[in-house]
């Protein structure tokens, strides 16, 4: 991947110079093969259900179906959404200012329509919102109303960095218990919804520690897409938690993992066989890197056997994803 023109020193600069540029460059092939690669890597690490927050302002319509197909082809469950934002103009270009605009943009309307279409057609998903600080009040209200209409929650990044520190105030009258609040690092006031802690991503983006044990929300553990190994994520989460509070134990982080079943209760019937016989002990898992799934059954179907996927060719997925990565890098030059 080509380096940024200037080294980012603030979170907003990381977003502007890295992540948002990647969003704008995505097309259908990139979306499908990157989703397939992420899904198969998650499966090989024992994950049977994925919660996904997607953005591709120049490829909105049909994007959630591509992600859903990629996950189904691999054999894992997915709950996905399109993260709407007013930071894109009607031509798919980034607005010159990042602060909330006065009204909803065409790109945000199309993103909400994509969420509605996908869910109405039977897809498992939520109404996605990028973050309060890149959305107008009109967009935030429209997303909340659509979620109520569809009987789903809103999946939104909340107070990830200083630029979104006012999120709680702007969302307090909208948030509901079925909302998925991602990050919450700078969340200073209570906000209804489940809170997803993403330790590795927070470290990588230099946004600080969210101190999830100080929050009253139900805590889930996430990766924010930076990795697909949730046991490794849990080990990192435990180490960071112990740095914050020496009295904490791996049991706390294990509960964060188990709380994911609130989103995917059906995943409790899946069967994962591991290469480590102490997998049920949070203490053992916290100090045993390299633990891998050997066999996985989802809805009674064998989707991983001897560490390899059964429904797809892992080498083909890696090769196709590599091809799309090179195309993406060319666009970012």
UniProtKB/TrEMBL annotation:
Pfam families reported in the protein's UniProt record: Amidohydro_1
Q: Where is the Amidohydrolase-related domain?
A: 19-238
Sorted alphabetically, the keyword list is:
Hydrolase
Q: Which InterPro entries match?
A: Amidohydro-rel, Metal-dep_hydrolase_composite, Metal_Hydrolase, MTA/SAH_deaminase
Care to name a GO molecular-function term for this sequence? hydrolase activity, acting on carbon-nitrogen (but not peptide) bonds
Name used for this protein in its record:
Unannotated protein
Natural source organism: freshwater metagenome
Print the organism lineage: unclassified sequences, metagenomes, ecological metagenomes
